[in-house]
Amino acid sequence: MTDPRSLSPRPPRPVSDVSAGVGLSGLAGLVVWLLVCRNWGLIGDMLALPGPHAPLSGPNAALVALIASGLPMVAWSLLVDKVHRRASTGIDWSAPRALGETLDVSITKLAGLWATWALIAAIYCLGRWYWRGNYLYAMDVLGYAAPVLFLGAIPYVLWLDRVLVDPRDAAWHFGAMLIGRESFDPAHVAHHLRAWAVKGFFIAFMLSIVTIGFTEEVRADFAHIASDPVTIGTVTIDFMFMVDVQIAMVGYLLTIKPLDAQIRTANPLLAGWLAALLCYPPFSPMGGGAVLDYHQNTADWSYWLAGRTPLLWLWAGLLVVLTAIYAWATVAFGLRFSNLTYRGVITNGPYAWTRHPAYLSKNSFWWLATLPFLATSHSWVDAVRNTVTLGLVSAVYYWRARTEEAHLLAEDAKYRDYHAWMRDHGPITAPLVRAGQWLAARRPRKGS
């Protein structure tokens, strides 16, 4: 029987809140800086620059990469997309108030922000995991940034409050609660704390890993890998993951209203937080022999396919494509990438194919890269255990996707339109939905 929806003209997909040019400009800036770092020795020789003439592979070069990718995205957003003019920013540039009119509001807001940052700093001090391994670098960076952040907030808040339609935002409500002179809305306070919990947790985590992939790509020796599918695949995959981390880090840092990139809401669902935190240290049970570690007595794809060169090339190509989709899903967000938050609706790029391209590609990558149904111990028990465990990991990501959908469906009519469009017309989502409906229709019912 023909689906009636296939006979009617396909409605247009809802327009994305972020244009493709934002992320692509950031990617271009990142690649240019990577090439500069790789060829710094040659550049230094040509320009007779002082200092060592060697590739820039240190952690500070990775931090500069954030600027190299962030500035083009900011420029595109302001000059091309003109996001600062959107009503969703909550800003009216045409009628700035006098400083005296908003000074009291700004002082209350600064109190709320400073108290929030002090609370985050206290949590960093209490969390043991923040003081070992890669997190030590993150704590150093945040320590140097803290005075700049605290002092820089003063002119920024004083300036922004003059043009905000309603300067009494969530940060103001938190400050009002602390000062106790004016009434506040507990719902705004809860939103403020959730939003900064996201930023505090993920900024520290991203800073702890942002230098790793960048350093590896600067040091990669491409001259000796042209004929090796495993090495080419590994280096290319690492590049895709580096792109993902760099663009995502910029997104976490630039959650500001003039760029229309503010956190509009953070996920209020406990299930959403549980599903997300299970995927990140120190809460993740997916590695180090923990309950969802699916690597016991396994080897990666290159081990199992060794000696089968055509198959190695094919497998490397599949894994590269999957990581490219994963990175593309982050690049499509531009300045607005962030877990557990609503910062606008993305409908272009890989999100024109499925609502969750990052989760789909990441989990597919794990299955193809690990091949959990093969065990080096030759034990069928290990093979079954690893396969079931990876299936549970994929189930966590399915749960995470559903909690994110529940959050966004409750927040924005535009996302509801996008959700419905993907259900009916998405190249990947629609067939899966129809397959699920077909199976549900044939499921035996109670009493039949």
Provide structural commentary.
A two-stranded antiparallel ribbon has the order 1-2. It has a domain of 62 residues. The mean pLDDT is 94. It starts with 19 loop residues before the first helix and ends in a 7-residue tail after the last helix. It contains 15 helices and two strands. The protein is an all-alpha fold and 448 residues long.
* Structural Rg: 24 Å
**Alpha plus pi helix count:** 15
- The CA-CA distance between the termini, in Å, is 24 Å
Tertiary shape: globular
**Which bin fits the share of residues in helices?**
55-70%
Q: Main beta sheet: strand number and arrangement? A: 2 strands, antiparallel
Q: Determine the structural class based on helices, strands and strand pairing.
A: mainly alpha
Q: What percent strand?
A: under 5%
Count the E strands: 2
User: What is the mean pLDDT?
Assistant: 94
Topology as a string of helices (H) and strands (E): HHHHHHHHEHHHEHHHH
Low-confidence residue ranges? none
Query: Main sheet: which strands, in order across?
Result: 1-2
